[in-house]
Amino acid sequence: MEDIAKIKQAFLKGLGGAKDRAALEALRVEYLGRKGKLTLILRSLGGMVLEEKKKIGPAAQALRKEFEELLSNHEAVAKEGASAPHAAIDLTAPGRRFSRGHLHPLTQVEDEIRRIFASMNFSVVEGPEVESEYYNFDALNIPAGHPARDMWDTFWISRGAKKSTENLLLRTHTSPVQIRYMEAHEPPFQIIVPGRTFRYEATDASHEINFDQLEGLVVGKSITLANFKFVVEAFFEKFFKGRKIEFRYRPSYFPFVEPGIEVDIKIAGGKWLEIMGAGMVHPRVFEYAHYNPHEWQGFAFGIGIDRLAMIKYRVPDIRLFYSGDLRFINQF
Ligand code: PHE
Question: pLDDT confidence of 76, banded at 50, 70, 90?
């Protein structure tokens, strides 16, 4: 037992003086190696009388465990010390890049659209997302009970404490801004209205309950569909710069235009894609806006901004735009 106490003292002294991993390894060999001081005692246990063995055995075993722990602790510290110089500040290292984020792809597309129309002398106008039934439907020649209302199923807003006498809803299109703008301005003018719209419908790869639209409205004394054709084709040619585009105009129906048309485009010989509704402003819509339909005429159109973004960036599913998934967003 005296030997054991001495060994422990000597070991601790050696440990205090061991400055690096090599010294620690030497210490380990000196005490725990094959011929180490503690190892020899452990080996000699077999030749001891039972009483001695019972005392010395556990003490020697405990000491071995203690030595091993102390050595591995010191080794860990020595290791940290060895790598410390690398962790110091390197003043010559290049700076780290800040991750600043960027605009959402739909915002980028909307900005591009605004730029193109601004270059054709259009003003940008906005309207409320929570709209009244009057502006979203009635004033656009879609009275209550009209079957066309089924084309725009929507979310109605409870009037709550506001006690509004009007029915409120999330606008199903940007067309109500046509009326709002005409009520407050005199023609001639040319405007676009980008904005978020909402529809109560099942979502799939090409339908979302909210999406972005771009309304266009041009009113003057002698505006015709030929003007519309020119504007639309000029726009798409700029938007899809350098790609060959074909246009197709089909008759369609929207209560607020007459005649109503739909425009399809075909890019670089691909498939026909339905891209917008349009037409000549219906005389009744002018009446709602207090314009004289015998004096003024104009065209209106509505484009799905998400649809344009999907085509431009070849995005297969509209829901990706609203997923908040950075793996998608960071590709733009
Ligand atoms: N507001 C129509 C829609 O959302 C599109 C449209 C706008 C059609 C203007 C004609 C004129 O489907």
Answer: confident
CB of residue 228 inside a 6 A radius of ligand 1: no
Q: Supply the range of the domain harboring residue 10.
A: 2-83
Phi-psi region of 93 (alpha: psi -120 to 50; beta: other; left: phi over 0): beta
Q: Is the CB of 198 under 6 A from ligand 1?
A: no
Rounded Cα distance, 190 and 277, in Å: 17
278 lines ligand 1 (CB under 6 A): yes
261 CA distance to ligand 1 middle (Å): 10
Question: Do 63 and 178 fall within a single domain?
Answer: no
Residue 84, pLDDT > 60, answer no
* Same domain as 292, residue 255: yes
Question: What is the pTM for the complete model shown?
Answer: 0.71
Give the residue-averaged pLDDT of 201-224: 93
